Amino acid sequence: MKTFIRVVEYWIPNGDRNLLEFGGGLFGDANRFAAISNNLCFGRGEGLPGQVWETGHPIVLKQLEGSYFRRAAAAKSAGLTCAISLPIFKDGALSAVVVMFCGDDEDHAGAIELWANIPETSRDMTLVDGYYGTTGDTFEFVSRSMSFRIGNGLPGMAWEAQTPVFLPDLGKGSGFLRADGAVKVGINRGFAFPCSTLDGSNYVMAFLSALATPIARRIETWEPDATGSRLMRTLGFSETQGTSGATEGVNLTGETANPLAQAFLTGVPAVAEPMVAIPVAPRGRVTAVMALHF
Amino acid sequence: MSDSLTTKFIEISGVEQTFKTRKGLFPALRDIHLTVAKGEFVALIGHSGCGKSTLLNLIAGLTTPTQGVLLCANREIAGPGPERAVVFQNDSLLPWLTCYENVYLAVERVFGAGSKTVGAPSENKAQLKARTDAALALVGLSAAALKRPGEISGGMKQRVGIARALAMEPKVLLMDEPFGALDALTRAKLQDELLEIVARTQSTVVMVTHDVDEAVLLSDKIVMMTNGPAATIGEILKVNLPRPRNRVLLAEDRQYVQYRKAVIDFLYTRQAHVEKTAA
What we know:
Oligomer: heterodimer
Shape of chain B: globular
Strand content of chain A: 35-45%
Order of helices and strands of chain B: EEEHEEEHHHEHEHEEHH
Largest sheet of chain A: 7 strands, antiparallel
Number of helices of chain B: 8
């Protein structure tokens, strides 16, 4: 089973905080692209990670070729044509920049949308940009016309909850308000999470997954319990195994090598193949960790 | 979008409406924030009891909000006024007056000697007559001017109501399911006429409707309300269909169909949610 997201990488500030250095990632069979990435670093405003650092907001780059993306040729040879990048802020400072890559071949059915609300100018959350793979423009057209209020629709729900939201079946009155259009183009699951910002703006990244190409093989959300001493799995879904059962949780106190705990405590993603743990840190505070299994 | 559609004309900020009932306080609306631009046609859509008419009444100044502020042209809406004319579902005509007299009454009140419009000189009878004739002509009722409401059809009565509202030269036309009581053919005809009238007068319109096709056909913006109690605005759909709009051509237009589906999705999903909650 191919996944909609093909490659995930993350970049972390160096000791002097003037460069972003390669932190790690999951590259699948894109070995050459991985090798090139390993040796790169980006200044503020340079390349996609540097742009995200500079703006402090997520960016959807639908066409890598001909853009400021510095590894376009290597990405193209690996079949990667689109990138979604988001900053992670913890305690008022950038802790990492995450980049996810997709391709535009026939297997890429699904969509990734970036929604934003700028409180000074509007109450609405509107589409910044989206990557729609092979879903055609039907779904994109409606998304571009729509705006959500807090608590409404998939983006509005993640905005309100300030943690990831998963809708396992978009076609059954799940609160996903574009259900008819979504089902028609094969999109059946929705996963959205609030992005990290420091300027009061609200950004939500929404993954809309099609039956044939899920966003990831398995999606999990881990959140701290009431005591704050353990991370508990609050959501778990696999395309092959369905919903996950309860777990004992992950200890957050003391020394820990657990990637989920590390991601939660440091605000930096952690990789334990075939899983990448990405901190969810709206408004500069880590509220959850999402684990994407490939 | 034209330049006029970028300026705020009606501003609704933090509006909440709670009614006192025998069973206690009933929160009808909460956290309503909405702007309507000059010349914009906005439809309010949602299930029964979602507070659409309550919101329209607030804009009309027929009720005052429990909390929040409503502005029209930068002035607080503190009560009803001729700059905000309302067309209701029932025609609300005076049955003992002719169509002409029904419209003339409103014209005289706004522009005649009894007018309370500050700074505006009152008009003479000939001017008032000209206004009344023009309004009836606008809705194609010149020939029925001397008939009484009981002598004309439901569609014609509603046209008199629209003529009466437009004759007051309101800054905003507020319509509460104006075509809801009419048969489908008459409704379609009046919708088409309203499209032409609004294009000519460049009116700002806020319309309450249950009709998805009506909302998409007429509107620049569809405001979708969540279910009550304590209803609020859930989604807003911008309808970027070029004007003038032709219902026959639009029936097969891809974008029209997609807009229509988006509104149906909202209503259908919400209705399912209601049933689930109730179960």
